[in-house]
Design goal:
The complex is a heterotrimer of chains A (about 120), B (about 180) and C (about 700). Chain A is globular, with a radius of gyration of 13 Å. Chain A has one domain: Rossmann fold (3-Layer(aba) Sandwich), CATH 3.40.50.2300. In chain A, helix 1 links the parallel strand 1 and strand 2. Chain A has about 120 residues and is α/β, with parallel strands linked by helices. Chain A has a 5-stranded parallel beta sheet, with helices on both faces. Chain B has about 180 residues and is mainly β. About 10% of the residues of chain B have low confidence. With about 700 residues, chain C is of the alpha+beta class. Chain C folds into 5 domains: about 120 residues, Up-down Bundle (Four Helix Bundle (Hemerythrin (Met), subunit A)), CATH 1.20.120; about 120 residues, Alpha-Beta Plaits, CATH 3.30.70; about 55 residues; about 180 residues, Histidine kinase-like ATPase, C-terminal domain (Heat Shock Protein 90); about 160 residues, OB fold (Dihydrolipoamide Acetyltransferase, E2P), CATH 2.40.50.180. A 6-stranded mixed beta sheet of chain C has the order 14-18-19-17-16-15. In chain C, strands 6-8-9-11-10 form a 5-stranded mixed beta sheet. In chain C, strands 20-12-13-22-21 form a 5-stranded mixed beta sheet. Chain C is elongated and about 120 Å long. The N and C termini of chain C lie far apart (about 85 Å). Classes of the chains: A alpha/beta (about 120), B mainly beta (about 180), C alpha+beta (about 700). Chains B and C meet through strand 6, strand 7 and strand 9 of B and strand 21 and strand 22 of C.
Chain lengths: ~120, ~180, ~700
Amino acid sequence: MAKVLVVDDSNSIRDMVSFTLKSAGYQTVEAKDGLDGLAKAKTGSFDLVISDVNMPNMDGITLCGELRKLPNFQFTPILMLTTESSTDMKMRGKSAGATGWLVKPFNPEKLLATIKRVVR
Amino acid sequence: MDIQDLATDIPSQGEHTVEGIDFITSGEQYLTFLLAQEQYAVDILCVEEIRSWEQPTKIPNSPGYIKGVINMRGVIVPIVDLRLKFSIGEASYHDTTVVIVLTYQTDESSRTIGFVVDAVSDVLNVEATEILSSPAFGGSIQPHFIEGLINVGKNVVTLLHVESLQQVEKHATNS
Amino acid sequence: MSVDLSQFIPSFLEESFEGLELMEASLLNLEAGDHETIHSIFRAAHSIKGGAGTFGFDSVTEFTHLVETLLDEMRDGRREVDPKDVEILLNSVDCMRILIEAARDKADYDKDKVTENTHQLEETLANVLSGEVTADIQDPDDAQNSSKKTYHIIFIPNHDLAKPGNDPLFLFGALADLGELTTEALTKELPALSDICPQELYLSWHLTLISDSSLEEVKEIFEWVEDECELTITQSEASNIVAEPEIETTAAPSEENTEIVTEKPVEIEEANTPPVKEQLPEVAKEQIKSKTKGKGDVGSIRVGVDKVDNLINLVGELVITQSMLSELGSDFQMDKIDRLNSGLEQLLQNTKELQESVMRIRMLPISFAFNRFPRLVHDLANKTGKAMELIIKGEQTELDKTVMEQIGDPLVHLVRNAADHGIENADVRVANGKPEMGTISLDAYHQGGNIVIEISDDGAGINRDKVFSKAVEKGIIDPNSTLTDPQVFDLLFEPGFSTADEVTDISGRGVGMDVVKRNIQALGGRIQVESTMGEGSCFKVNLPLTLAILDGQLVKVGSETYIIPLISIVESLQVDDGLVNRVSGDMALYRLRDENVPILPVYQLFGLSTEHTKINNALLVVVEADGQKVGLMVDHLLAQQQVVIKSLKENYQQVIGISGATILGDGSVAMILDIPGMIQMAMGHAQQKRHLSHHHDTEQPTNGIKELH
């Protein structure tokens, strides 16, 4: 089953995303900030990365850029979890190499439907 | 063993034998016991267990009828001697002296107290309609402990109000 | 399939309250230019807003959005850190707390306070808010028909569309989820095999989708790649294409279509709102039951994995010891007695370590209790107009979670007291050569088996004479009594005592020092006061590390075994009759160095029968409570051991002189003595005696024959 890396500094958001994904049959690994996410990414292979933008130690945009430098993450779908959907946000994400974004507040059904655009 | 053998002059009501099968119909069940020669009863749902008498640890400066506390599976349970509390008969302690442990539960609290009695009798099945009111005067037991009287054959069983029995703090003032 | 997220509400609430605490603490210490802190405050608010939105706590989301906007301005450098803004933000944290609690309990809240703070935020953000565009809700005006439409999509991706992880196949999969999809790949761009770069896309597609989804929904599938492709979507109405048989069956006459037009948008909107909203009423009811107080009384504890691992190791060792003893016991011969003893020794060790380890799980650093004080002192400084600062030390000192929860309010009162009565006005301080800024300090440390919490201030100190005369005035003490300073200060804890000329709002009303003392004693602790006029005061609170276990001295009186808390024992000795003095009739005093300690025969106090009634050579356990020493006369001293405190109140009631019971090794119950209670009892008895003998004297017949009543 597809393996997803969930990165968010909020325990409850992380738990909820993970729970939603697991209930649809995905495997999840959680990280609490960008640094932790990068470390976990280096030790595993993932089919999808879902990451929050605002996090301590390393924010989501930076994490995205760092992930794209890793050989097996060049084409991995990376989705940014954000409350903003401004053009500015999209551009920053895209230039860092993000595949797309998911807007908070969080709708589990929407999440599952949306990630189908990049994983199976 | 048939419980009825324990006290033969107390028939159990509400049991019908139909083709050899015993049925208990409606009504509530009560455990009857003896204080001297008098018969008393309490709601069986409140009976936690029946123990044999063991010397409790005294509570300093407590009324005489509170014999102390015992350790019941890690819980501290007070022991009240009903014979002393109600001034009925003699309070003697033998191997056959029995302690009925009652637990009364409300939404907020639960209290477990053991009551020393002379003997345990039987389980009665009683309909609510069979519980008669007790005369308001006479007798050494205060009215608020009595829920009613039950006629069993020629005898009378006094039904005790468990909630009042459990209110040990109020007992002290009434003595 | 619907995913139920309501189970995450408690964790979100917990996280939010922590976030609010962090915001408050950070705001109090915020200095200009501290970007790191501003960012963390922003993140906390941002998280709360996001989570609140998920669970439909709209009032929280809306309010927090304003807070977040202000913080955003600050973190982006568009705004300097302004003390006025900090005050507004501090109040906002309070409002957020109120709103979250109200959302959690489905209860009402102080709307005025929230409205006021909202205005403050709006005012200070006046320039920013006007330019803001709320671009969240999209009008589903394309959601016209519920009947199937046909979309013709021409999708020409750029060559490098796949680079950021977008795979057209998945997009088509998502499209296919909306309805019937037919794809036609256009290969004209395909280069020769040798020229193909595997990561680039050369194909384009002509897609036909028959679906009842809206145009918006179809477009949305492509939203991530719309800049990296050429996308053309044309929609044809089903009713126009009569030739398609499948559409005919689902096609509805135009009038029906228009009817459905009005319904569908509503449906779609409902389908899109977080489903958690409907589940919320049920969940909220549960929340009300499980979280009656916001103080986290039943709650949970976060335990470090290291503590849990330690516990697991210790249990492992216990299992080994048990099997060893079991083996010994199965075929026991007397020659194995040494091995048995060492096995039991090991069992003792295992049990001790296990017990300590488990107790430590309930222990949390006192910082949890201390963390409300910076804000409190900040507010008190504002309210009283006095400059004061708070110094906190020893906040990592650990204590039992329950003790900590219950010590909070007494500590608040003591700090308020220090701020109100202790610290003087700035001009008074300066006139006395003190720094203008008053200092209140909180300290916590372990001592013996206890935790000591000190609340001290460098203020005016306690006026001994004033306290004394007030106590005389209130009839608490006799004007002729001679009391040491500590004893005078203890008078502050008498009920109804207040030396403040008016009852001030901050510390005078309702909660008194007597309640503080009572609460502390209820926890098995004690409080002492030290003070020097003009220099300051120090309130020392001494608490047991855990409520459940006590170090006790077993003693025997008659046939009964009692337990005296070790913490209250000063010393044990055998009475030398030469040091005993009798005063006022039959009160016996023991001369212990310079003090006269009253002797309390326990058997008399408890109405027990014993052979050991003589004071000479009797065993005296000198104990101390409330600054007073008393010698308890007992028959024998038994072992010292740790006992588990069992409440008498569970099934019985409070007994004066007894603080609880315990179950000894032999299964029997022993009473734990409450020293202050026993002293009270002794005073009561003495009064009774005086009363009786008074009667006795007045009714004495003139012929001198005494009659007993």
